[in-house]
Amino acid sequence: MSDTDNTTLSQDIAFDLLSNARRRFVLRQLQEESDPVELGDLAGALAAKENGVPVDELTAQQRKRTYVSLYQTHIPKMVEAGVIEYDRDAGTVSSTDHVDELASYFYSTPEMPPWALAYGAVAVLGIAVYLLIALIDPAFINAVHVGLFFFIVFVVLSLMHYQYVNRVHGNDGLVPVDEE
Prior knowledge:
By secondary structure, this protein is mainly alpha-helical. The chain has helices at about 10-20, 20-30, 40-50, 60-80, 100-105, 115-135, 145-170; strands spanning about 35-40, 85, 90-95.
């Protein structure tokens, strides 16, 4: 698969790539950066995470072990799949559009409340009350006020719907790392 290929990844390739914590870490780091990331910086961040120490406290052995693993195994595998691009001359790694595709395996659309039903119920009730008032013509209720009331109810319902959708889909699109 070339890096210009616009096809989707097969599930086998996606699951294989995502089966390794180090690859997930690299993918997440690349998602959070808009610019290419140096392989040495990725290896340092990963080694620090795996060893539970700050990057500046890593031993040369810890850093080298992680770097070699990324350089020889994980980066070539992700490049071959077309998920990342590796510039050997600059020593930098960058993501392709396939990273977001891989992230989609980690979130699902939760069952949504029946928003259409709520909107429909408010509309039907509003029309029924409006028609009832228009037919009865009571002196104490103005049909315009009823229409305004149901308009406000629609606005409030829409705002609730908007807030719900933003809360539910707040973290979508990121490759998770082990502690999430």
